[in-house]
Amino acid sequence: MNYFYGPVPSRRLGFSLGVDITPKKACVFNCVYCQLGKTTKLTTTRFHYVKFPTFKKELKNILKRKPKIDYITIAGSGEPTLHKGLDTIIALIKAETRNKYPVCVITNSALLDREEVRRELLQADLIIPSLDAATKRTFYKIDRPHRDVRFENIIKGLIALRQEFKGKIWLEIMVLSGYNDTRQEAEAFKKIIKKINPDKVQLNLPVRPTGAKIALPEYKKLLMLKKIIGKKAEIVSGFYKDTQKKFSQSIKQDIIKYLKVRPATLVDLTKATGQNKFYLKKQLKTLIAKKIVKEKNYHHNKYFVSISSKN
To answer: Domains in the chain, ordered, with CATH?
Structure first.
């Protein structure tokens, strides 16, 4: 298993060195919008997944190349809080990098009602927890959780996290047309968010290919949500940083690693690898011919998707 991918261009975090510490699609949810498809291991049981010598070696090798990094982000292809011992992971990263880069954890919030999970997150610099619904009915429609997960406990966990965590919290809402883009849902979000008190509320969109047919909300509905939620809300914008220089000797392997974690457009891959689009097209053509990568059209954009994406 490769524990790291990127740095990849993130719309929110600049150049993000991704950390993937759980098996693919080991998750507490089976979200309708997930870019990685259906959850294959729906669980709430935490486990020690990481082999620390390998993890440390991979990180050292990446740092030797001196890539441009704005954040080191624990996210990946499963729910990261399912790894038991996140505090050890964060401490190791900070020690190896001499605390040079802020550490971010992206979580679906499902396990935040557990005191041990919140305690393990305290060493992070930024936490981006998600809250896709403000009502129980919408929660079950969008996130399709494990049977042991309760919507009210997620809210309690988010409130407790804010009280205990001294770093920044950016609450993410994935906005889906026909699910959570109504005025009723927006008003309910406003009440809950006031209790959670995050530093930001980020309205995100399912712009990458998913396993289901999900429509993007109308822009006017996004503006309505933003206005009702209040001044902390923002609509996540595109990625506009300068292109990163080449960070790996094997561009094909970089493409494969990237696509195992997330589908990407040609523009995404250009920014992530530092290679020009003509060279990338040539490499992608080879990978498509070998049936390692395939093309997929989504919302009038062409995405490249990994076919062989098992860890």
So the answer is: 4-241 (3.20.20.70), 249-311 (1.10.10.10)
